[in-house]
């Protein structure tokens, strides 16, 4: 018989609302978690990350993979790609995968990319 759990069964919108209420000091962690039906420890972790970094990625992560790039870094990559497109440089998906690999290596981030081919995976 399978054990029923509620892991990952909260919505991103509920979490964002709860975070806003805690950051604006309208509610405590416990009240916000109860009202918006999100895990209190997860709420505390997200609020702490936002206070430290100024940003945080909100989402249900049920696996070992975590995003390598922050939202700011992703925006910079998109801006670079648009800039290259305006200059009529036709970049392929392989070029983008190589660029992602170079950025991860240059920033000293831990990764599991193919070091022989020096490019990221398809996803």
Automatic annotation (TrEMBL):
Q: Which GO terms describe its molecular function?
A: DNA binding
Q: Which residues form the HTH psq-type domain?
A: 15-49
Q: What is its main location?
A: nucleus
Compartments (UniProt record): Nucleus
Q: Name one GO cellular component term.
A: nucleus
Show the InterPro entries listed in the entry. Answer: Homeodomain-like_sf, HTH_Psq
- Pfam families of this UniProt entry? HTH_psq
- The protein, known as: HTH psq-type domain-containing protein
């Amino acid at each position: 018989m399978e054990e029923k759990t509620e892991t990952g069964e909260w919505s991103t919108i509920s979490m964002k609302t709860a975070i806003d209420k805690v950051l604006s000091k309208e509610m405590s962690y416990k009240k916000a978690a109860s009202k918006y039906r999100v895990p209190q420890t997860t709420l505390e972790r997200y609020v702490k990350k936002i206070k430290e970094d100024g940003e945080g990625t909100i989402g249900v992560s049920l696996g070992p993979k975590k995003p390598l790039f922050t939202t700011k870094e992703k925006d910079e990559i998109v801006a670079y790609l648009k800039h290259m497109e305006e200059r009529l440089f036709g970049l392929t998906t392989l070029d983008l995968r190589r660029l992602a690999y170079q950025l991860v290596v240059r920033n000293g981030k831990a990764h599991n990319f193919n070091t022989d081919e020096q490019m990221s995976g398809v996803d």
